[in-house]
Specification:
The protein is about 30% helix and about 25% strand. The chain has three domains: about 150 residues, Rossmann fold; about 170 residues, Rossmann fold; about 90 residues, GMP Synthetase, Chain A, domain 3 (2-Layer Sandwich). Helix 1 packs antiparallel against helix 2 and helix 1 crosses helix 3. Strands 2-1-11-10-12-13-14-15-16 form a nine-stranded mixed β-sheet, with helices on both faces. Strands 4-3-5-6-7 form a five-stranded parallel β-sheet, sandwiched between helices. The chain starts with 7 loop residues before the first helix and ends with a helix. By secondary structure, the protein is of the alpha/beta class. The chain is built from 15 helices and 27 strands.
Amino acid sequence: MRGNIDSVGDMFALTAAKYPDKTALVFQDERFTYGELNARVNRLARALMAAGVRKGDKVAFLFMNSPEFVVTWLAVAKAGAVGVPLNYGLVPRELKYQIGQADAVAIVFSPLFMERILAIRDDLPQVRTYLCNGENGTLDFETLLAGYPPDEPEVDVSLYDPNLILYTAGTTGAPKGAVLTHRNSLFNAFTCCLDYRFTRDDVLQIVPPLFHAAAVNCMLLPGLVLGCTVAIHLRFDPEDMLRTIQQEAVTVTWGPAILWRTLLAYPDFAKYDVRSVRLLGNGGMAMTGEMRETLLARFPGAAMMDIYGMTELSPAATLLRPEAALAKPLSVGTPMTLTDVRILDWRGREAAVGEVGEIAVRGNALDGYYKMPEETEQAFKGGFFRTGDLGKRDEEGFITLVDRKRDVITTGGEQVYSREVEEVLQANPRIRECAVIGVADEKWGERVVAIVSLRQGTTPDTLLAWCRENLAAYKCPRQIHIVNDIPRNAAGKVVKGELRKRFG
């Protein structure tokens, strides 16, 4: 390792040198110390370099949550290449787009996804290296590791070199590749360590997908920077999650509100000892005060925090700290340390207290969208990244997320915030999940349409009556569709583009 700490790889190597015998990673029955994990990372970095991967090259990787994901992510960074973590829920057409758009020259992937990769291989002429399990012309992962030394690779990587290309969720339109530098990732990791009050003694649990910016940059990297033990899960399973909390004495765990809702409904929850947990994190979706209180009652030693951000912000922007979580349950909190968050009106001026405007952030935004200069220019105005989210600030400086700009429904000349309608519907005990969209209407311009899944049987008319009791007439859905499940992407966000296609 060189004298300076200029990259994610440098930072991990430093931690591994300080705590070589401490458990770094836990996954099912596997355990890796920092020394063991770093050796595997170095071997793979050298293998990639021997296969022709050079500094600045793009390397796509496709795994479920696993040690292989972690090793590949860090190895690509140490090789000076740019990692492109892929959403394992994507179909071949979507994978082809992202791999091709990113100009990836190598793909590292799990055998689980062999069929998907083979289906697009002929359409990816720029890809030179396929690393999997040795079949179908790919290179064998474990054999390859054994053939290279565990010494640190000598690659000159700087803070401002690109580290990751993370594709936006793509709820509407084609996904954009957000380019994050090593500085972006490390800045976010250090800020999270500070604001989340992590310590080296913490045991962090990661259940959401690691390809998501929040999981990798807000939990995994901070944990590995500090020298924590990090327990990762293949996927969300209530029993597995609770068993791991008990066995590993997990102190910090995080997930979206839908995860917590499902966990609370698990019938055997009380069989597990969860008293080790000191901090619960919520991100991606709002959580009601009632649900928050129930969750904290189930985790008697824990406090609660909420994170707001997006991929482009590396991803954290604001934090609802534990001391305010119950007092302001629908707020996304106040800015993270060293982050400036403004609410701007339509003229680009700072909005008054209580006035709805666009949330704009300065501090740790992306380097740009890969090969999308126009989109990059549009995203930055006046030195701030324009999030496209609408929010308002109260007298104490707490920000409330009102809606996505694109999810504002204009009906009969009136603006309806879909999130407001969703909150009213979600308060109905018969509703499990809901999503509200705007659908083109010849008379009204757009009409409000709700899609709901139910806990208990009811009728659209009954739900409409509920809305009329709680919303102005123009905000009420004109149609309610009952479905079994609301479509979500792997990050837990509702795919409203799909709903618009289906019900528009």
